[in-house]
Design a protein that fits this description.
Blueprint: E1 9-14, E2 18-23, H1 34-49, E3 56-61, E4 66-68, H2 73-76, H3 81-100, E5 105-109, E6 112-114, H4 116-123, E7 126-130, E8 134-136, H5 150-158, H6 160-169, E9 173-174, H7 175-180, E10 186-188, H8 193-205, H9 209-222, H10 227-239, H11 245-255
Parallel strand pairs: 2-3, 3-5, 4-6, 5-7, 6-8, 7-10
Antiparallel strand pairs: 1-2, 8-9
Helix pairs in contact: 1-3, 4-5, 5-6, 9-10
Length: about 260
């Protein structure tokens, strides 16, 4: 995980179980180019296969002006149709990796999240925003549409009618509006955003890791099923927690009136 070879992202382990991932292209407002997209995908896919004791992930941007300004249009300038499509496959894989990751991923949105940056925010499990955060999906003004999941993830977060308004107009909306419309969970001062997000990540990391992963999957997949199918899926997820050592430890700790020590087994 602690690859020093990443060119465009920084990784730091906090309190043993939290991985802080920071987009690190500040001169480009943390816009993602092909390399950043490939590096993030590689990191998230590796964590999905073998979590190495990481129980929650926080995604943020370097500096205070931008979380991520979306796809790097300078890199795309003059691209042929085929090259554009090939590059976009990299972005699609990145979004799918984020959505499918079994470990909870929390966004700490510190500034502008435009285009693909807004789509990344919408793909995460939930996000907190700084007071100066702002969002927009300006793709229609470039002759394209949001293609990194935006028409799907934003609609699921804010509802169909609001998503249509935001995508069809491309208008900028504020941190307060993001909270009001359910794209973000809460809003914090710029200098408190990361600390507050870490507190929530610590709380998640204190729970039984297998149960966390099963609950996340049950919520996400269940919402795409009928209630009846969702209930059946929930029981399958529940049954996966019964034979774990953490389930035994959790009940024992409760009865012994102490904090449980979960091992993710």
């Amino acid at each position: 995980i602690m690859q020093s070879s990443f060119e465009t992202i920084l990784t730091e382990i906090i309190n043993n179980h939290i991985l802080l991932v920071t987009f690190n292209r500040p001169k480009s407002s943390n816009a993602f180019n092909t390399i950043m997209s490939e590096e993030l995908t590689s990191l998230i896919e590796d964590l999905s296969m073998s979590s190495d004791n990481i129980r929650s992930i926080i995604l943020t941007g370097s500096g205070e002006k931008a979380f991520c300004a979306g796809g790097d249009l300078k890199e795309r300038n003059g691209m042929s149709d085929d090259d554009w499509k090939k590059q976009h496959l990299v972005y699609e894989r990145m979004i799918r990796a984020l959505i499918r990751c079994p470990i909870p991923i929390i966004g700490a949105i510190n500034g502008a999240a435009f285009g693909g940056g807004c789509e990344i925010a919408a793909a995460l499990d939930f996000v907190y925003v700084s007071e100066n955060a702002k969002f927009a999906l300006p793709e229609l003004g470039l002759g394209i549409i949001p293609g990194a999941g935006g028409t799907q993830t934003l609609s699921r977060a804010v509802g169909e009618r609001r998503a249509k308004e935001l995508i069809l107009t491309g208008r900028v909306f504020t941190a307060q509006e993001a909270v009001k419309w359910n794209l973000a969970n809460d809003i914090f001062p710029v200098d408190k955003l990361l600390d507050e997000t870490i507190k929530i990540a610590e709380l998640i990391s204190s729970k039984a890791p297998i149960a966390v992963k099963q609950a996340k999957q049950s919520i996400h997949k269940g919402l795409q099923m009928s209630l009846s199918d969702g209930l059946s899926f929930e029981i399958e997820a529940y049954n996966r927690t019964i034979p774990t050592k953490d389930r035994i430890e959790g009940v024992l700790a409760f009865n012994e009136k102490r904090k449980p020590k979960f091992k993710g087994k």
